[in-house]
């Protein structure tokens, strides 16, 4: 082995010191300055009458090295030559190197701070673990909520909302994306970004999970070739939070998590052991789609309740001073809200009673379920009392005749098995489903068999094709079906690509149906709300999946009991939102919504609004929770939007 030269050893030593950080770099530069000063002092020390000793010569050399102003004070040629060399060395070593080291250190320090690696020192904040397609709509919803947020902050003994979002990488582009999001803007300063993987314990400490008032785990869409799906990640995050709480002997925080497969619910509860609310993402979206498939026009109601900033929302109010009042009196004192039912506590669980009789009295500890545009509208208004409604107990409604549907699904994602299971859960209804996708048929069938082992009312056949190819939609003959569903694919590289595929497919479908002259019901799934404006949808209903799930996560984080209400509304066997034909006696020009609500209440149901046959200039058919005293100017073809049980569309 050839021995290393001295110069190589010196270079290696300098390299190991310089890469250890700014402090060691400054030490190396300091040693170099001392060495140059020593050499300069030794060169001028022999001069006669110059210096009394080595110390004075070294000080002379150091001054010339660090300050070029001394250069004109020297006498003699040799001293001036040495002083000039020292001054030049000072420019290079003392000024250039030191400034470069300090500048680089400062930039590095600022970059590390911008990366969001510093743990937050907050309490009673809301921590969002992960940056997915749900995160931005979730933050927007939390920032735009006012009255409900004030109650949440009051319950947690804090005055100001603080959001901490954990992303894999924090950069200027991420912050710009947050500031440019509609509904955030200047309020982005209330959001603190921290970088890290939520699967890592250090990243969870970075967002102070154990000190948070609520922790939200939004779901993510994983490609099929990933061995780590969204539910597995959620379980790992919950285990990590539980382990941290045990090590520090701290209580577990309240967690709201999105769950893709509801069959894993017990596993997640056992893994965590604390306050945990689960929002079943796939199952919830499937319920929304099946409800809309059964009641065309329902997607517009979902859009108002979950997406539109000025739309109506569901609220639950717990006020002990309302105990003893009847639902009729509580409803009549709230002209801008609609009382939907009662949330009663039975033993250690809650029971939802929608369309409760008007004479039922609110008990202490019960929650009043309302629909209103603002949280303030759920409070009684002094001096504004409406005529009380009389709603008898809801009798068993005769089921509508059996219905058989033919459904064409264009595209495939991991939610299709949950969609088939939801369709299979409705008694008396059958469906023949054709799924057209470029996914392998065997993979699709295996996923369905794992989710719906033995479907009883739904038959499914698969076609392997790319419906974007010329002539493929015509070969599928969509005009023969009752409903056509276009789903976004989770095998695309991004949500934008998935939306682009779905939108192009919709345009090709629209062109084919115009030539065929037949329009089935069309359900279109998108991920980006900005893409909705790009489509002039005719006879189609659009689902913005991430936005709807983000709304649910935000609502449940602020008021956890709302999950029970949504489950009641959109699960088979519970109360449903549907449509009723207008009776002749309500077609008068001066009919107001209070008169409509009185007529609907006599059948034990609740009036929510009007679905008009002719759209407004903005393209909307729905008028939800209108002014109770304003004439509606109803016309033939308009329909009532009601909350009932298995209401039939006429």
UniProtKB/TrEMBL annotation:
One of its GO terms (biological process) is monoatomic ion transport. Residues 285-376 form the CASTOR/POLLUX/SYM8 ion channel conserved domain. This is Ion channel DMI1. The chain crosses the membrane at residues 21-45, 81-107. Keywords: Ion transport, Membrane, Transmembrane, Transmembrane helix, Transport. It is a multi-pass membrane protein. GO terms for cellular component: endomembrane system. It comes from the Bacteria. It is found in: Endomembrane system. InterPro entries: CASTOR/POLLUX/SYM8-like, CASTOR/POLLUX/SYM8_dom.
